[in-house]
From TrEMBL:
Name the UniProt record assigns to this protein: Calcium-regulated actin-bundling protein
CC annotations in GO: cortical cytoskeleton
Assigned keywords, A-Z: Coiled coil
GO molecular function per UniProt: actin filament binding
GO biological process terms, semicolon-separated: actin crosslink formation; parallel actin filament bundle assembly
Top-level lineage group: Eukaryota
Coiled coil (UniProt feature): 183-210
Boundaries of every Calcium-regulated actin-bundling protein C-terminal domain copy: 188-265
Source taxonomy: Eukaryota, Sar, Stramenopiles, Bigyra, Labyrinthulomycetes
InterPro entries: Calcium-reg_actin-bundling, F_actin_bund_C
Length: 293
C-alpha cells in the first residue's frame, strides 16, 4: 500500500537529500533504513547521543512500541511470537502510526508522564489535521522519496532541528565501522533471548487455546499453563536472560572504561547501543525473568 495516483513532485527536502549525498551515501542511508525498527533507533541514538540522548527513554518506551503496534495491527498479528519486526510503514500505515502516537501521548492516561514533563517536549508529536499530516509525510518525513516511512525517517523528522540525513550518514558510518566486539556479543546474546521468548510465547498461546477445550484435555492444558514459568522452555529462557545480562554488563563496563580513557574514542559512538541494550534487557527481565512469576 503505497501512495496512489500521480507521483508527487519532489519537495525541497527530497532535492536536498539527493544533492547533499553521493550515490554511495544514499545507498548507505537506505541500508540503515531497511534494518529492523530497533536497529534504526540504535543507529540514530549512536549518531546523536550528545544532542538527543536525553530523549532515548521516549523513543524506547513510546515511539518504538507504537510503530511496532501499527505494523502488527496492519498485518493482523495479535501474538508477539508471530511477529517479526519490520523496517518501514506504507504511507497509510504511517498515518495510522501518527494517529496512535498522538492518541497515546495526549489522550491516554499512560501518556500523562510524557506530556506533563517539559523534558519530553522535543519528542512530543505535533497536532495536525489529516491533510497537513499527509503533506508533511510526503514532503518532509519521506526524505528518500519512496512512498514509505522508516523509523529512521520518523526520528530525523521529529528531531529535525538537531539532525540532518547527511550528517547522520557521516556519523553513523564511523560508528558502524567501529562497533566493539563486546557490543556485538551482547546484541547476539539478546537475540538468543528473543528466540527463547518466541518459543515461550508460542507454547503459551498453544496451551491457552487448548485450555478452552472441555473435559480432561482442557483441564490438563490449564494445569500446564499454570506451571509454564517452571517448564523446561521457561528454564531455557531464564538461562538466556542470565547470559544476556552478563554480556550486556561486560559491554557497558568496557565501554565506560574506554570512554574514561578516551572521551572521543570508538566507545563514545556506542552510547545509544548501551542504552538500548540495557533498556531492552530490563524490559525482558520484567516480563520474563524469575521475578515475573
Amino acid at each position: 500500500m503505497s501512495m496512489r495516483g500521480a507521483k508527487p513532485k519532489e519537495s525541497a527536502a527530497h532535492k536536498a537529500f539527493k544533492e547533499d549525498l553521493d550515490p554511495a551515501a544514499i545507498a548507505y542511508f537506505n541500508e540503515v533504513a531497511q534494518r529492523p525498527f530497533a536497529d534504526q533507533a540504535v543507529a540514530f541514538l549512536n549518531a546523536y547521543w550528545e544532542e538527543i540522548g536525553d530523549q532515548a527513554p521516549f523513543i524506547f518506551e513510546v515511539a518504538w512500541p507504537t510503530i511496532r503496534y501499527a505494523e502488527m495491527h496492519t498485518l493482523g498479528i495479535n501474538y508477539i511470537h508471530l511477529y517479526e519486526e519490520g523496517y518501514e510503514l506504507d504511507f497509510n500505515v504511517a498515518l495510522y502510526f501518527y494517529e496512535k502516537l498522538v492518541q497515546k501521548v495526549f489522550d491516554l492516561d499512560e501518556g500523562r508522564p510524557w506530556r506533563s514533563d517539559p523534558q519530553w517536549a522535543p519528542s512530543l508529536p505535533e497536532h495536525m489535521t489529516a491533510i497537513v499530516r499527509k503533506q508533511e509525510l510526503r514532503d518532509k518525513v519521506d526524505v528518500n522519496f519512496d512512498g514509505k516511512m522508516s523509523f529512521l525517517e520518523y526520528l530525523l523528522y521529529q528531531y529535525r532541528s538537531l539532525t540532518s540525513p547527511a550528517e547522520f550518514i557521516t556519523r553513523t558510518m564511523a560508528a558502524d565501522a567501529n562497533e566493539p566486539p563486546q557490543v556485538t556479543r551482547a546484541r547476539e546474546a539478546l537475540e538468543v533471548v528473543n528466540v527463547a521468548i518466541r518459543e515461550f510465547e508460542a507454547e503459551k498461546a498453544r496451551l491457552t487455546e487448548l485450555s478452552k477445550a472441555p473435559g480432561v484435555k482442557g483441564l490438563g492444558a490449564k494445569h500446564q499453563l499454570a506451571g509454564l514459568m517452571s517448564s523446561p522452555i521457561a528454564e531455557e529462557l531464564q538461562v538466556a536472560l542470565i547470559k544476556a545480562e552478563a554480556a550486556v554488563r561486560l559491554a557497558v563496563r568496557q565501554a565506560k572504561a574506554e570512554m574514561a580513557a578516551d572521551a572521543n574514542g570508538a566507545a563514545a559512538g556506542q552510547q545509544g547501543s548501551m542504552f538500548w541494550m540495557q533498556a531492552d534487557l530490563k524490559l525482558k527481565q520484567k516480563l520474563y525473568g524469575t521475578r515475573a512469576k
